[in-house]
Write a sequence for this structure.
């Protein structure tokens, strides 16, 4: 039995057209397909064949604009080299910034927790009521924004 090493790539999605306090209308399936299309375009059949096995979008939060991609160790270099070249996701103009590459999901979530806490502190002063603050905190600290259907589809 062989153990497969994975890499978890944390990506920040920024859009110049949508203000930072508004959530992006971004589905993880569209983001997943866009990344695969860009890998196909840049690295060809070899790149897409290497990446496709074990490639998943684990987490996508529209409020903090953070996504986690899982890829196997080795082909993760195809993924990371393709991310800066993605300028459109669906009809949305975006730019992607790689925040963190981790070996375990636990450490990746620790990094995201720290990053989102900083984001929450910066947005806290812009909100007026306690209700808005509680809603933002619930949305930012929600780690359940994974699209289960795409993950089951790619495992089977």
């Amino acid at each position: 039995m062989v153990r497969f090493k994975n890499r978890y790539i944390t990506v920040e999605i920024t859009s110049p057209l949508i203000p930072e306090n508004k959530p992006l209308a971004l589905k993880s399936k569209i983001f997943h397909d866009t990344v695969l299309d860009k890998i196909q375009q840049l690295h060809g059949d070899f790149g897409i064949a290497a990446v496709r096995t074990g490639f998943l979008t684990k987490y996508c939060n529209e409020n903090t604009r953070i996504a986690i991609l899982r890829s196997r160790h080795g082909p993760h270099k195809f993924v990371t080299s393709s991310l800066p070249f993605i300028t459109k996701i669906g009809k949305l103009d975006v730019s992607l910034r790689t925040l963190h590459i981790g070996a375990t999901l636990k450490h990746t979530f620790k990094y995201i927790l720290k990053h989102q806490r900083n984001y929450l502190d910066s947005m806290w002063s812009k909100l007026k009521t306690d209700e808005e603050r509680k809603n933002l905190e619930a949305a930012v600290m929600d780690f359940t924004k994974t699209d289960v259907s795409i993950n089951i589809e790619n495992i089977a």
About this structure: Residues 147-156 have pLDDT under 50 and may be disordered. The first helix runs from residue 28 to 52. Residues 60 and 67 are 4 Å apart (CA to CA). The helical segments are 28-52, 76-82, 105-124, 130-140, 148-155.
